[in-house]
């Protein structure tokens, strides 16, 4: 399908301007295994490409099918592959074309294409692996052509007659690579005859294969040869711009964001808007890609004011990136549609929760300075993350260039949605609000830890221009560095002060889990790992849904213990109890905020 559309952009722009966004009417049915929607060219041409569903089979042991037919030893790899596939899939050998293959030890692999009337099907391919005369596996997207509507094999429209329209639509020029004639399977099962040509644009580095209907002249599909997306940002492992930026290619996690960060599978953008996040400088449009192919590579320069154009662009991209990483990793840990997350539309096959609520990121929000905030309305309405400028340094700094601040803010959205089932009404007491602040710092701390050696952690050190950051003490397992304990809640009358006590307890819990279970670098992609830092995040997020509305420290600690009982069969009970107790939140602690160091006898 090929259509011009800008409605996605319009809708997101509307979302940027208000917190009260109606659920968007995107179809629930998404097709991430077989389709890819791209937005191409200056005019937002939306192209949906189709790749027929795969069959993938693996075999082992004596049940593996034999490929030994006739004089096996003398047959070529191509003939062996063709005869196996044709009998396996019920397709005549005349319709299977050998393309390429290789032999490695006793393993032989063949790549084949389906064909009709000697014309190959562009998007219908198969690969077969043999070990000796046994078939080890095969994958195939071959289609049943018996019942398909197949276009006549004689072209009636030449590609040169429509070339200028195609070039114009794709914003690229024919590159003199010979055109080929290929069949193309459409998602409705029909099979079109196409001229396949390549077009390129040296200025934007775009490079596409265009599939032009040889009977109508329409553009039916494209292959995009260029890597998809790149972002020049502060990687989430680093704290802020002071540690430098890098250009990351395709950082999106396709399990969490199957259409990437700029599409919901139906509509696409070429700017800092997508299914999870819509980001812009307040009062400005989202930032557009700096070059063809979703490249967002503005360079931040903190010797210049944050409001110069390139700095604004870089800051929006950085915030967009961090919030999308937060979406993607928490999705794997269970913050999904059904658990009231922030998305414009549902991922393929997912139901539950209200959609139409991507996070709206307002960078350089003029409503404040030296701070940031996150407004969490109920599920179905966009969360709004507002980042401010900081004027502590001579040249002002932008909160959106500081990873830990963005993560802290996003965590408000996550904790408010997971506590109490998406109502956003359950972190309203002073104590629960304090827990909320603590979770924000603890999440940023977790993201920044990078080895079995748990380091002390300071918040907002870059914008505040001080190594100690903006809290009273860095978070630490060393009571000489951070002495905060449960009894300090007696004198804490403000959410951030309360939050510091909680975040420091969680820092100690984290360190104890990592000491006992180790550290895994794949924390963002492997929620099922057994390392301490992964277990910590499991308990962090699981406990939110378990704890009551407006929880206290004591109830939240119990929710951690219950989460551990549920998910890990109580394996970490003593580690958790001991760590909480070391900061006064032992099992005997009550709402008088007196330190208690009780743990179960077996601990
Ligand atoms: C297609 O038709 C042929 C001939 O009738 C038959 O042998 C084959 O099994 C059919 N293929 C499929 C996939 O149904
Ligand atoms: C392209 O087509 C021309 C004309 O048919 C032919 O002479 C030439 O060898 C082809 N080039 C390639 C690289 O296949
Ligand atoms: C690349 O830019 C040059 C100079 O602006 C222009 O003449 C040329 O047409 C552009 N190329 C394409 C493929 O758009
Ligand atoms: C972890 O981060 C710290 C602070 O940036 C750095 O000094 C250290 O080398 C990093 N360690 C690893 C294992 O990457
Ligand atoms: C983690 O394990 C669960 C249950 O086995 C599985 O459904 C899920 O896909 C796994 N997650 C990842 C990211 O591998
Ligand atoms: C509470 O416990 C902490 C850590 O053990 C300790 O440093 C602090 O002095 C205690 N506070 C009170 C009031 O007992
Ligand atoms: Ca939602
Ligand atoms: Zn906060």
Describe this structure in words.
The structure is a single chain. The protein has 603 residues and is α+β, with helices and mostly antiparallel strands. Helix content is 26%, strand content 20%. It has helices spanning 7-17, 77-89, 163-170, 309-332, 403-418, 430-448, 461-464, 495-517, 532-546, 553-568, 573-582, and strands spanning 2-4, 35-40, 45-50, 55-58, 96-104, 107-116, 119-131, 134-140, 173-174, 180-185, 191-201, 206-213, 219-224, 230-233, 246-249, 277-281, 295-296, 359-363, 372-375, 384-387, 389-390, 397-398. The strands form 6 sheets. It has a 5-stranded antiparallel beta sheet, covered by helices on one side. Strands 9, 10, 11, 12 and 13 form a 5-stranded antiparallel beta sheet that branches. A 4-stranded mixed beta sheet has the order 16-18-20-19, sandwiched between helices. β19 and β20 form a beta hairpin. α4 (309-332) crosses α5 and α5 (403-418) packs across α6 (430-448). The longest helix has 24 residues, at 309-332. It is globular. 50% of the residues are buried. Mean pLDDT is 87; it is low at 1-31. The protein binds 2-acetamido-2-deoxy-beta-D-glucopyranose (6 copies), calcium ion (CA) and zinc ion (ZN).
């Amino acid at each position: 399908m090929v259509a011009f559309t800008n409605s996605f952009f319009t809708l997101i722009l509307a979302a940027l301007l208000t917190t009260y966004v109606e659920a968007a009417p995107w179809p629930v049915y998404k097709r991430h295994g077989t389709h890819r929607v791209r937005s191409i060219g200056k005019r937002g041409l939306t192209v949906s490409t189709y790749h027929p569903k795969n069959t993938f089979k693996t075999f082992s042991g004596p049940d593996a099918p034999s490929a030994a037919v006739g004089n096996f030893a003398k047959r070529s790899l191509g003939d062996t592959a063709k005869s196996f596939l044709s009998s396996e899939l019920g397709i005549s050998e005349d319709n299977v074309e050998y393309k390429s293959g290789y032999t490695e030890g006793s393993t032989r692999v063949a790549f084949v294409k389906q064909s009709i009337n000697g014309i190959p099907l562009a998007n219908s391919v198969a690969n077969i692996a043999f070990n000796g005369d046994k078939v080890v596996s095969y994958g195939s997207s071959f289609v049943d052509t018996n019942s398909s509507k197949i276009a006549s094999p004689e072209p009636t429209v030449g590609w040169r007659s429509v070339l200028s329209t195609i070039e114009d639509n794709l914003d690229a020029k024919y590159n003199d690579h010979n055109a080929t004639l290929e069949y193309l399977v459409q998602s409705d099962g029909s099979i079109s005859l196409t001229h396949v040509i390549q077009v390129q644009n040296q200025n934007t580095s775009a490079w596409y294969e265009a599939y032009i209907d040889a009977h109508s002249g329409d553009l039916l599909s494209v292959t995009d040869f260029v890597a998809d997306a790149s972002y020049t940002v502060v990687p989430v492992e680093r704290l802020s711009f002071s540690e430098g930026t890098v250009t990351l290619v395709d950082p999106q996690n396709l399990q969490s964001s199957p259409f990437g960060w700029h599409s919901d599978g139906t509509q696409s953008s070429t700017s800092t808007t997508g299914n999870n996040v819509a980001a812009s400088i307040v009062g400005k449009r989202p930032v557009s890609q700096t070059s063809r192919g979703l490249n967002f590579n503005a360079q931040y320069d903190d010797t210049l004011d944050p409001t110069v154009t390139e700095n604004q662009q870089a800051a929006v991209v950085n915030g967009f990136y961090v919030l999308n990483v937060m979406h993607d990793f928490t999705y794997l840990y269970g913050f999904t549609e059904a658990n009231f997350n922030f998305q414009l539309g549902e991922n393929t096959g997912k139901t539950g929760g209200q959609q139409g609520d991507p996070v709206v990121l307002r960078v350089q929000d003029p409503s404040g300075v030296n701070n940031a905030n996150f407004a969490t309305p109920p599920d179905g309405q966009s969360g709004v993350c507002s980042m401010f400028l900081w004027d502590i340094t001579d040249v002002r700094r932008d909160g959106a260039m500081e990873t830990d601040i963005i993560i802290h803010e996003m965590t408000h959205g996550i904790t408010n949605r997971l506590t109490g089932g998406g109502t956003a009404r359950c972190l309203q007491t002073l104590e629960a609000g304090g827990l909320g602040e603590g979770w924000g710092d603890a999440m940023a701390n977790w993201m920044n830890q990078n080895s079995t050696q748990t380091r002390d952690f300071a918040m907002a050190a870059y914008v505040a221009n001080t190594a100690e950051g903006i809290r009273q003490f860095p978070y630490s397992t060393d009571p000489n560095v951070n002495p905060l304990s449960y009894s300090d809640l007696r004198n804490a009358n403000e959410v951030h002060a309360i939050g510091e006590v909680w975040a420091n307890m969680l820092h100690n819990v984290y360190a104890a889990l990592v000491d006992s279970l180790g550290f895994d670098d794949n924390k963002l992609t492997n929620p099922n790992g057994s390392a301490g830092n992964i277990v910590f995040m499991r308990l962090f997020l699981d406990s939110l849904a378990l704890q009551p509305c407006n929880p206290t420290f004591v109830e939240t600690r119990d929710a951690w213990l219950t989460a551990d009982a549920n998910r890990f069969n109580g394996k970490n009970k003593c580690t958790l109890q001991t760590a909480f107790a070391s900061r006064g939140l032992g099992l005997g602690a009550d709402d008088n905020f007196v330190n208690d160091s009780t743990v179960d006898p077996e601990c």
